[in-house]
Amino acid sequence: MPNETSIEEPMTRDTERAKVTLPEHTDQPKPVADGGGVIETKAMSVYYGDFRAVADVSLNFVPNQITALIGPSGCGKSTVLRSLNRMNDLILTARTEGEVLYHGQNIYEDHIDPVEVRRTIGMVFQKPNPFPKSIFDNIAWGAKINDFKGSKSDLDDLVQEALESAALWEEVKDKLDESGYSLSGGQQQRLCIARAIATKPDVILMDEPCSSLDPIATLRIEELMLELKENYSIIIVTHNMQQAARVSDRTAFFNVKLNEQGMRTGRLVEFSPTDQLFTSPTEKDTEDYITGRFG
Amino acid sequence: MSISAPERKVREYFPTEDEYQGLLDKRSRRARLFQLACLLSLMIAVVALATLLYTIVNDSFGLVAVVNERDPEAIVADLGHEPDSVALVDLEFDELVGLLETTVGSGVGRRLERDQRFYDDRLVFESEEEWAEICSSDAPPEGCTAGPRDHSNVYALVLERVVVQDVIAAYDLVPSIFNPSGFEEEIAAGFEAGRFGEYTPDQASVEWRAWFNLNFLRSPQSATPEVAGIRTAILGSAWLVLITVLFSVPVGVGAAIYLVEYAKPTRLNSFIQTNINNLAGVPSIIYGMLGLAVLVRIFEPFTSGAIFTSGVPPAENGRTVLSAGLTLGLLALPVVIISAQEALQAVPDSLRHAGLALGATRWQTVRSQILPVALPGILTGTILAMARAIGETAPLILVGAASFITSDPTGPFSKFTALPIQIFQWTSYPQIEFQKLAAAASIALLLLLLTLNAAAVILRNKYSRRA
What we know:
The structure holds 2 protein chains of 2 kinds. In chain A, a hairpin with a 2-residue loop joins strand 1 (about 40-50) and strand 2. Chain A is about 35% helix and about 25% strand. By secondary structure, chain A is an alpha/beta fold. The longest helix of chain A is centred in the first third of the chain and has 15 residues, at about 5-20. A 10-stranded mixed sheet of chain A has the order 5-4-1-2-10-9-3-8-7-6, with helices on both faces. Chain A has helices at about 5-20, 75-85, 115-120, 135-145, 150-165, 170, 185-200, 215-230, 240-245, 275-280, 285-290; strands at about 40-50, 50-60, 65-70, 95-100, 105, 120-125, 205, 235, 250-260, 265-275. Chain A is globular, with a radius of gyration of 19 Å. Chain B is about 65% helix and about 5% strand. A 3-stranded antiparallel sheet of chain B has the order 2-1-3, with helices on both faces. Chain B starts with 16 loop residues before the first helix and ends with a helix. The interface between A and B is medium-sized, with 28 and 21 residues.
């Protein structure tokens, strides 16, 4: 299957990265599908049972950029995000139609193992969810379960590197053995980001990562995201329009539309570079939303 | 007030100030009543438990009237000691063995020696040639390999074989303390009524006896209540618990993991779930019937060990400790499954998502993240199930626990008895000594349960702290 190579390829490079010998891995240009995106959705619809939660989403996520998904509650932005690494598979009734292409490979094809997809496309959740283990193990576990082959000191290096990338190293370097729960909320969320980075993903999905954090912790995460986009493609769902405006390069605005049967379905309304979307939106709905007329 | 509140209709729904006071009193009285009712319930429970413990302890200790076939003081005097300063138990090891040598017949003596020899370097009852012969036979007795008897062992033998104690009457603990003279009157009355057969009053002596003692725990079952013990039953119960745990915990936790982590809510799966819940309430005798029909009969080649002994006919039929342990394992299984399910369901989904989002498989997530968090809960449920299994009697009777057995279980294919069986049998004997033994065995059973529960708490705390 020739298509398979496109998803295999970054995995092969990941093995090298796991040895911590190639920290500059992301300087190499990534193979990109025709649309130029690291992930591309084509007419994607997600159903929960008979209910169509989002319809006809066609998006193109540019590598090494931050893409924000915004919109009112229930517009399906989190559903779209979870569809991008098949986390929606965990919801029994969920079903995705259309295509989600990762470097041109549809991740919903039968021969694709969702385990591989999630390893390549990592995720950070709304509420910090560290494992009830030590800070070190929180990071190291992801490497171990992904068949990390390096020595103990390689693992130490990997943990340090991940924590440094997540701007947490200085705060925790003396207490790596303490429980991840002993950290503050903002630190826990950065620990979760470090954990996601440690498995060397290509894309990081963030589902409202700052919604349970105070403004200072939020600022730190935002700064971190701007640093991380050098090496990763980031897709973030946020309720906070200022946040989208501050950090993202491109923004997709979703809205809820009633269909003929009166069912609420989320639809992509507008997708453009962030400054353009916030200064001169082309759609009326977008303008109403960003000027605070609803939502 | 400058602003007057507008008339609010809602006021009319509430009682006036005066009415309110009366109604409040009524409510308070009702609250006190229910608080009292709850306290009463608690007290009933506490009183019931206290009565249980009182009865058991009351029966396990107390005064006894003993008739010795040979007076210990006379024995000591015969050996040339001063009876006032030297008691029977103070005698040297060699003197005790000598007593046995002169008292018991050579047949009994040889049997005792084959069970366990008296000296490392010499034989007392057997001749060297014969000993060598029986030890080189196909089935050498235990005495060929076991170490020699110690002092307390030989002392117990002397009591049993030389002194030959016979407890003719026993008193409970509380009257023994507060009314010891009542016991003597009772004995005197008993002698007058001729209840003690050919014994005369001057043969009988009154002494304290703890029915629950170290020798009781160490001795095997016996038809003589004065020397009967529960070692066989304790070892039987231990084997049962071991087999029950080994079967029900892996199977139960595995089934729970499948149901919680993998199973989709199909009709079949909810049918299975309902049945597991129902099985937890099935009476234990039904499990006993299952064990008898399936494990003892159909699986006899397996449960008797025949298929493992390659052609040699098994010593036992299917009524082995393995059959009984598996029966109890089946009995405990639904409880283990349900408690493990509850423990797994209590683990937040965010941990599952965190694991899966890192590219872990389901199993990796369950193994490393979910199970450790659920472990304390699983342990608690398992121990509760074991506590239920260890006290079960009915299924053991059905699968054929031995009613009288003096040899310890040596493996999964042994015949066995268990503590509750032992208690059940002793309580059915008319002699008062056996009632006392049953009470003492109850203490042992309760202590065993307490040990298990303590182990559970310790394990749980250990694993909880790791998080």
